[in-house]
Q: What sequence folds into this?
């Protein structure tokens, strides 16, 4: 270990303007007032903001910061930042360091180049950023630059949300309001607030930088558009949870240190299923903070990777034939006094709060399954979902044996008992019996109950967690509202709760599935049950504007119809742009790298045939090879022309939905045809001439 390595506890949160820093640096009354403002969800008043800003600036400067920035998450799904220095010139020609409350709480970047989905014209450039003071400010060191980051929401001149954060915060408000109502009815008068929690497990690949730099496809699209499968893939299951390679372990160490400093409690790390694939999971946090942190995780993995000459690929499907990457979103709800509302306890059948919350989630997920599906609909995720390694596009819920049994009891009129699980005896005298969990795990389920939380596994590895999480918060809030509306009028809450649970258990039984989600059988069974199976991103995005979806977002003030429409447009456009970039990159590589290599090889073969003939030997083998290569070159030529035409045809559409659908139906198949021939050529052409690093090199060289 590095001699200068400070103890881990000294590093954690070192660069965060967190509670302990505030307590130390803010006048007591200001600190108290600030905490109260956050707890009550109010705005920060101007005088308070000035004092907080000043303390923040002093702290930042002591930590070598020269700049501050409003850090926000436009609808690109990435983060954005514009840095300003604290410097303010003085009349004597010198400078002082200043930072006002207004600069802390509000920014006004020129926002015209971010996607707005038609919410405003390009010339209407004003956008506002405002500090989300529930997510603490932090300092980030990038090379020599040290900047104070202020996590922000971002909206237009007319207060329309232009980012991922605003609807997430609004959905947290909605969930809080409705969950507190239900808790009150169930007799909990102590809890003042309910917060959604999120622990996102992040999967990623690491590839040698020198290979990455030779692959235009990885550089421009994040995934390999060409590449014959390596003779070995993941079939030996030897990478999964295997010992960490020294170089990777050192990389992970450096990532952890960076993240700990930023207040991200990176906790779990391991090798994943595919060779060269890994996972990082932090300890869960409030959903908005966890969303900010996940952005930092993705960024840090990439940044630190480069220091080790490794490139981190966050794409959902960098390599065909081996597993892609997801981002499992572990979600629950917790009260301000620490009650996890999805904690079943040892006798879940008589834990009324748990049963109500569980049933609310089940109903929400079934009722709004199309919306959840749409929240993970991206071009990258299309290559992963349903590819026998990730959940299919059918939303279902895994409850496990114990809860399914209770759910069935509820359907029949009331839950009277909880199955217990006993102990595991291993039959080895030196090994103690282990307490057995009440439910086994099911890795194939898109939405699985995992002990005291749900795990939404359809989310793509490169996605912001904000989208899927604001959908989940909103739909659960909606069902809780229904319950509260009904129960607040009830004269016998206990019986009426039972009735509601019975109704839900009967109505939504179809969404519960504990079996193998990857199998053909389930697809058929799901169709019988009437569960939607929305295979493509385009089809899925086209469901967003369904009347019940508009209604649920408007009812809970998460998104207006116009905001939702704008988002749909942005997502459709993003899909088309991604497919176009992939197609153009594909053309570029096929035309300028693969074709020339194949032609060169055919020349070598032709000369060999000629020379062998001259030498009076029989060039039959060389001729056969030459024929094969010539046929493939011809096919590649034709397919390249076809792809060019497909790109032109597909983009000739008068609206974004049509264009996206064209991209899917016309471009993807043309691109596949180019790849197919190119990959065949890879297996024929002399390896020394092949311009692209192979799958074996990229996946296995450490
Ligand atoms: P798995 O065994 O499914 O791979 P991991 O240990 O990798 O699980 O990750 C589980 C994630 O779930 C962690 O980020 C953990 O902090 C998070 N988690 C645990 N409890 C909760 C909760 N109550 N709410 C949200 N997330 C939670
Ligand atoms: Mg995990």
A:
């Amino acid at each position: 270990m590095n001699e200068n390595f400070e103890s881990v506890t000294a590093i954690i949160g070192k660069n965060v303007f967190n509670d302990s820093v505030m307590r130390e640096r803010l006048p007591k009354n200001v600190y108290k007032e600030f905490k109260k403002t956050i707890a009550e969800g109010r705005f920060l008043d101007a005088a308070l903001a000035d004092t907080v800003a000043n303390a923040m600036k002093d702290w930042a400067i002591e930590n070598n910061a020269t700049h501050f920035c409003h850090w926000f998450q436009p609808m690109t799904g990435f983060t954005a930042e514009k840095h300003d220095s604290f410097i303010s010139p003085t009349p004597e020609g010198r400078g002082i360091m200043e930072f006002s409350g207004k600069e802390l709480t509000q920014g006004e970047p020129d926002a015209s180049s971010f996607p707005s989905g038609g919410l405003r014209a390009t010339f209407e450039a004003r956008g506002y950023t405002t500090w989300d003071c529930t997510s603490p400010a932090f300092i980030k060191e990038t090379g020599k630059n040290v900047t104070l980051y202020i996590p922000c929401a971002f909206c237009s001149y007319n207060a329309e949300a232009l980012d991922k954060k605003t609807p997430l915060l609004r959905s947290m408000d909605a969930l809080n309001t409705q969950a507190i109502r239900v808790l009150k009815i169930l007799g909990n008068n102590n809890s003042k607030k309910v917060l959604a929690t999120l622990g996102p497990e992040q999967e990623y690949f690491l590839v040698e930088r020198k290979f990455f730099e030779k692959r235009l496809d990885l550089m421009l699209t994040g995934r390999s558009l060409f590449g014959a499968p390596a003779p070995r893939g993941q079939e030996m299951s030897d990478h999964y949870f295997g010992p960490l390679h020294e170089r990777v372990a050192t990389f992970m160490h450096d990532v952890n240190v960076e993240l700990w400093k930023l207040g991200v409690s990176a906790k779990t790390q391991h090798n994943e299923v595919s060779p060269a694939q890994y996972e990082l999971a932090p300890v869960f946090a409030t959903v908005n903070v966890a969303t900010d942190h996940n952005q930092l995780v993705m960024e840090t993995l990439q940044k630190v990777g480069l220091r080790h000459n490794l490139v981190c690929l966050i794409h959902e499907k960098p390599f065909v034939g081996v597993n892609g990457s997801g981002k499992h979103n572990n979600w629950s709800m917790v009260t301000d006094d620490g009650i996890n509302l999805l904690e079943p306890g040892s006798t879940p059948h008589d834990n009324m709060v748990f049963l109500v919350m569980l049933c609310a989630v089940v109903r929400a997920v079934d009722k709004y399954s199309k919306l959840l599906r749409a929240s993970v609909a991206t071009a990258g995720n299309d290559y992963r979902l349903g590819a026998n390694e990730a959940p299919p596009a059918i939303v279902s819920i895994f409850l496990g044996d114990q809860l399914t049994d209770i759910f069935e009891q509820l359907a029949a009129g009331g839950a009277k008992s909880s199955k217990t699980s006993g102990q595991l005896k291993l039959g080895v005298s030196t090994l103690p019996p282990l307490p057995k969990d009440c439910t086994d795990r099911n890795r194939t389920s898109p939405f699985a109950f995992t002990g005291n939380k749900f795990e939404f596994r359809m989310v793509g590895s490169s996605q912001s967690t904000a989208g899927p999480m604001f959908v989940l918060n909103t739909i659960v809030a909606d069902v809780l509202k229904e319950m509260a509306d009904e129960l607040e009028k009830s004269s016998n809450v206990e019986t009426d709760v039972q009735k509601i649970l019975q109704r839900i258990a009967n109505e939504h039984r179809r969404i519960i599935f504990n079996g193998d989600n990857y199998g053909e059988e389930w697809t058929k069974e799901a169709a019988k049950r009437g569960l939607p199976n929305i295979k493509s991103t385009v089809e899925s995005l086209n469901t967003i504007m369904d009347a019940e979806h508009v209604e649920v977002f408007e009812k809970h003030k998460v998104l207006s119809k116009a905001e939702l429409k704008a988002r749909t447009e942005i997502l459709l456009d993003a899909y088309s742009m991604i497919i176009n970039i992939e197609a153009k990159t594909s053309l570029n590589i096929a035309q300028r790298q693969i074709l020339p290599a194949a032609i060169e090889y055919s020349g070598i073969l032709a000369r060999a045939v000629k020379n062998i003939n001259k030498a009076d030997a029989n060039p039959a083998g060389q001729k056969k090879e030459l024929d094969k290569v010539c046929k493939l070159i011809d096919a590649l030529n034709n397919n390249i022309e076809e792809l060019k035409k497909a790109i032109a045809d597909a983009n000739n559409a008068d609206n974004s939905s049509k264009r996206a659908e064209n991209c899917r139906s016309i471009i993807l198949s043309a691109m596949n045809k180019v790849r197919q021939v190119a990959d065949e050529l890879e297996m024929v052409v002399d390896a020394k001439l092949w311009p692209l690093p192979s799958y074996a090199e990229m996946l296995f060289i450490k």
In short: The CA atoms of residues 73 and 505 lie 38 Å apart. The mean pLDDT is 94. The chain has four domains: 2-162, 164-197+338-419+437-559, 202-226+237-325, 575-700.
